[in-house]
Amino acid sequence: VMLFTLMVAVGTGIIFGIAPAIRASRPNLHEDLKDGARGTSGGAGRGRLRSGLVVGELALSVVLLVGAMLMMRSFLALQSANPGFDQSQLLTMRMFLAGPSYANAADRAAFVARLTREVESLPGVATAAVVSYAPLSGSSSSTVVSIEGRDHAPGERPPTAYRPISEQYFAALRVPLASGRLFTSQEVADTAAGQVIINDVAARAFWPDDDPLGKRFEMFGVMRTVVGVVPEIQQRSIDGRSESQVFLPYAAVATRPVTLLAKSHGDPAALAEEVRATLTRLDPGLPVYDMMTMEHMVAESFWDRRLYGYMFAAFAAIALLLAAVGVYSVMAYAVAQRTHEIGVRMAVGAEVRDVLRLVMAQTLKLVGAGIALGLVGALALTGVLGGFLYGVGSTDPISFVSIPLFLAIVAVVASVVPAMRAARLSPTISLRTE
Question: 353, CA 20 to 30 Å: which among 114, 158, 193, 371?
Fold first, then answer.
């Protein structure tokens, strides 16, 4: 990357330095003398080149800035997105129940029950719960189900994600109950429990025209009865697609991967050492990892979007600066080259407004062409960025209006300032300008 950047920088300097040198080494004396007599420093060819530079710079600036604004607005939308649960005051940590001590489901269920009791008894802990994989951890388990009373063709059984949970799981996340009830402590400890809670996505997918409470489906060879429905909780990413989710009592499907959730009364990070000490006391050999607050986990779930947001914000700032300076410089130079012409017009009776009208007409023509080309390029770019956007459309009107408007203002100011300065000069001085 460093080598490529160096080559581009050096190559740009050489190419744009050699081009005018070659042109100057092959002068057209006839045209140059005529241009000099008119008080300008370039002919029609150079005027078209300057116009082309303005149009090209505006077009490229529009493409880059529209893309940058879309990514920044998408990042801001992600920061305020609702993951489906309360992430505040929550400490998380992962563990894997390996070894002979956890050989069967009953042993794992007994350990989890003891673990939640011990952690919940710590000062500063409001509630404790476990789940196979925490929300927004990026990890998930899934299977297929057979809905009672339906004949499923081979390969057409509805897929669903499943989460073994403890009794206080929804309380720790502050997830409201949409309908039905939660698990009882007896159900959570029963390895043969057949009760399940589903999310609203599964309710709509499995029974779109009926109340899911009391309905049954088969999972892992056991008929399960729906006792409650909760709103969707994002599992893989905060902007992930909706998925059917089934929550089972932990003892019924006692998985080896376990995530502990500890809801605190204050700063959850302050609980880390006490919780770790409790785990060590219960099982010194238990591997514990990924200890972090839920807020940190949520932020990490869209680290790539955050990176894109910061990166495009930096690009946007640089592009704004380059566009403003570049457009101002080119337009100001183009107007300054017409100082002699402006002096002639003023000498024969033109007013300041006439000069401004003349300059503005030329400026708006170039600005219109540059912005039109830039918008076409920006529409093509958003087709590529569409998969990275969240909460903002690929043709977001704010982005597609504000950026061209800003660049148009820059170009107009760049033209008006030197035009006003030239128009206010004495015609005698303007006519002397070569």
Answer: 371
pLDDT in tens, 9-40: 999 888 888 877 777 777 666 655 555 444 44
CA-based end-to-end distance of the chain: 45
Q: How many residues does the chain have?
A: 434
Amino acid at 315: F
pLDDT 10s digits, 98-129? 888 898 888 999 999 999 999 999 999 999 99
For residue 137, the number of C-alpha atoms closer than 13 Å in the C-beta half-sphere is 22
Q: What is the largest CA-CA distance in the chain?
A: 102
Backbone angles phi, psi at 291, to 5 degrees: -80, 120
Q: Which of 293, 257, 300, 251 is nearest to 275 (CA)?
A: 293
Q: How many other C-beta atoms lie within 10 A of the C-beta of residue 33?
A: 11
pTM: 0.69
Six-digit token string for 71:
């990514």
Distance (Å, whole) CA 145 – CA 88: 34
Do 130 and 115 contact (CB within 8 A), yes or no? yes
Close Cβ partners of 171 (under 8 Å, ≥ 6 residues apart)? 127, 129, 263
pLDDT of residue 162: 93
Cα 84 to Cα 325: distance, rounded to the nearest angstrom:
46
